[in-house]
Amino acid sequence: MDAPTLRPFEDADIPLTVIDIPETAQRNIAALYEEPERAVALLHFDEHEGLLTINYAGELYFARRFDFPYAQLNADDEM
After folding, report:
1. Could you tell me the CA-to-CA distances from 12 to 2, 5, 8, 15, 18 in Å, in that order?
2. pTM surpassing 0.70?
3. Most C-beta atoms within 10 A of its C-beta, which of 32, 40, 57, 77?
């Protein structure tokens, strides 16, 4: 398979073993912090959007995207 997205990596001899979607990538990070019988919530914002995931026992139970950036959360309220 030769997708245009993969071509730059192939040209640079960078082998890709996994291409992940943000929800499962965030689940994988949160799984590093799981404790038995406890859920883990991870919230991430960048310059474009936010993503909240909730995991339990290695499973992704909930994912929600927010269509506003971190800067909007950090801005002073205007009334």
Report:
1. 14, 13, 6, 9, 17
2. no
3. 40
